[in-house]
Design brief:
190 residues; mainly alpha; two-stranded antiparallel ribbon; 6% strand
């Protein structure tokens, strides 16, 4: 599946955004909101090189948390029609204004948000269109949650054969494989 650079960046951003929610993991006492304040929102914007952010406040934080919850619904959608409806509502509410741009050393690509858009509208438009790209390609099943029982993070399965089961093969996948190996060894020695 060939994904343009800007779409890949937006997919990485939406996955990271969804995974900041405390409900992206099984309920645990120590699970905290990754966007627990305006400073965390600034850090998120900086980490993902979100342009034109300006001054942020509590209103922006609440709006981004709302967009985050709606993106989580897209990852949980049971079928492409439901996912498409959710994405359509997100993108429409953001007031998309597609425009070609080449900035920061990147070749021509499309921004879907208006130049003066809030950070929530910026995320809803660009990330919503990236999810739309996946749905239009008939690949909605690539929007997944980690199968590790103690994780649940969102990810986009970009493997060739759509076989990825864990958000990270180095952490969740490896941990479960080691646990299964140890269980087999224990059973064999018993």
């Amino acid at each position: 599946m060939l994904i343009p650079h800007d779409t890949r960046i937006a997919l990485d951003t939406v996955v990271d955004l969804v995974n900041t929610a405390p409900e992206s993991e099984p309920p645990r006492e120590e699970t905290a909101d990754g966007l627990d304040g305006v400073a965390a929102l600034y850090a998120f914007a900086e980490r993902h090189h979100i342009s034109g952010v300006g001054a942020l406040g509590e209103k922006d934080l609440a709006a981004v948390r709302d967009v985050r919850a709606r993106f989580a619904e897209v990852f949980a959608a049971p079928d492409p029609r439901t996912a498409a409806d959710l994405v359509n509502r997100l993108v429409a509410a953001a007031g998309t204004t597609p425009q070609l741009t080449d900035h920061d050393g990147y070749d021509w690509h499309v921004h879907y948000f208006a130049p003066d858009a809030s950070i929530a509208d910026h995320l809803a438009a660009d990330c919503g269109m990236a999810l739309a790209f996946i749905i239009v390609a008939g690949e909605q099943e690539r929007l997944r949650r980690c199968e590790a029982p103690d994780c649940g993070h969102a990810f986009v399965d970009l493997s060739r054969n759509r076989s990825r089961r864990y958000c990270s093969s180095r952490t969740c996948g490896n941990r479960l494989h080691v646990a299964a190996y140890r269980a087999r060894r224990k059973e064999a020695s018993a």
